[in-house]
Fold:
Amino acid sequence: MDPSTLLWGILGIAATVYCTYLALSPPEWLKKALHLPHGITRSNSSEVLPPPPLPNQPWNIPLSPNTHFTGRVEILAELRKSLLSRQFAALTALHGLGGVGKTQTALQYVYLHRKDYRVIWWIRSEEPAQLALDYTSLAVKLDPSYESVKDQRELIPFVRNWLETHDGWLLVFDNVRQPEDLAGYRPTGGSGHVIVTSRHEDWSAYPASVEIPTFDRQKESIVFLLERMGIKDKADDKDKAAAAEIARELEDLPLALEHAAAYCCAVGCTLSHYLDLYRERRLRLLDEVPQPHGYPGTVLTTWNMAFTEAEKTPGAADLLRLAAFLAPDNIPLDLITGGIKHLPKALAAVAKNQVALDKAIAALKRLSLVQTADATFSIHRLVQLVLLDRMNKKAQKLWATAAVKVVSAAYPFDSDDVSTWDACKRLLPHATAAAEHAESLEVAPEAAGHIWNQCGLYVQGLANYVSAQEYYKRALCLHGKVFGTDHPEVAAIVNNLGLVLRALGDLPGARARFERALRIDERIYGPDHPEVATDVNNLGGVLWDLGDLPGARAHFERALRIGEATLGPDHHTVAIRVNNLGLVLRAMGDLPGARARFERALKIFEGILGENHPNVATLVNNLGSVLQDLGDLPGARAHYERALRIFRQYFDDSHPHVQTVLGNLQSLNSSPPPPER
Structure:
């Protein structure tokens, strides 16, 4: 099929793409009794007591060695190298998202290198009071005479001075909120080492920092789950596949993986069973497990502290709430600033002020709740789930409404036009995420409907017809409920669905949709309206596919007459109708008539779109086809090659347009030579 057949009526549809959604009932969490399969292997490991310190070694490590610690070989090596490369009071900060394994990595380092230090002291630093208590408790270990001293103003300088005048010591400041919290505690001299763990991202003022990423899927996540379950050496393919899927679902976050493994071990279920439960019940499952070995609390506890801290910076927590209803990765900041009128009042005020917005983003970065890059920010999916779980239904509806309206306003109206595809691509994941949330919560149906239709147009242009069909069906279902069955909004979606069904080869289904859209639009607009012409044109296209060439020609000619009368002779929609008429004339054997139509359509398109637009390539290809029919093989080859060059600027070789032109070029090699004249 010529690629132009995919263009029929596309441009004419864009004027009626706004649509409205009814929300679907939100799914309820499944409340099922847990049925455990028999024969499940539990981990044989038991609680490990901290080994005693070396003789006369001040030591207060509160956590046992993690017998399930997996991977991090390169990070541990980098940490060791960083600490040894500095002569005085070397400090290295381990920073990253909550639950990524910062504390466990520091703990592993302690046990690996405990013999390299005379003093090892662990300081819980999330709260100022706890930091001071743990720090000053070292004093009596260094000098028993300080046992009776309770004044921290005396103890803090004593400990700091001792460290600055001795070597062979290691301090671990765990869960530091911000670098400033170490003021007055961090030694500035001595030959010891300092490790800091923190969600705060910016440690640039200190000698070194190491970002802790999530696990590597193959080398760490899967290995960890299988070892934690005690089945590494006897795992079958099903176990390994389930481990890989759990790792993917939890995005390789070590703390979440520990939850999954701990749950399985606690209740005696397989990884496959856990995976099924997680997909049914998602976040609630993570909070049902007993405290994982070696961690300070559950996933919710880990992140709740950060959320509470975020509330202290205007707009920071609200940005997280909004982001919970978008896709997690690469949320454009201009999406926020461009949708101010749709935001709740407090966040709108922050979004209007670039300084305030920058402060809010900076606060979230410090807490490692978001990462930023190229004017976007990203949030972990599990952070989103925690946020959603913390909101009541009223709050969920508020933020879902804001998100879907912000994205709806930003999504390009002419999303079937290749010139908008960069923007469409950037917004597509956020658009679908926001629309799904709005649909589930039964809010903002008009905005959600607009999004589904626009996303359908975009993915249809990418030849992702299956997704486009899904988007249009969702839009059509909701439009019918909102507007009734005979509304122009319904006709627009019916028409779009017909185009996709035609591309998928469901010609009877496509014809039925086009005929339905035509009936609605003729009743509303009369027989000579541009919307009617769109329906007539598209119906002509499916009649062609069904082999009814006279019927197709009649419909194309009618659509062309309406277009020329209402839009003028040089409109891009008129060019599409001219092209389509040329196609049917060619099929009916009128090659000169077909050539004249293709040349006219090409001239219009080049004048509007330039010489390197994919729609221009379609016309160039079609003109090449009729030249081949006329025996002008060099002319045909030149046109096919030009069309191919243009298409490859936008599509890979698997795209139907490219495949069509490649097939046409191949056909030239088997064409008989033109007759002698």
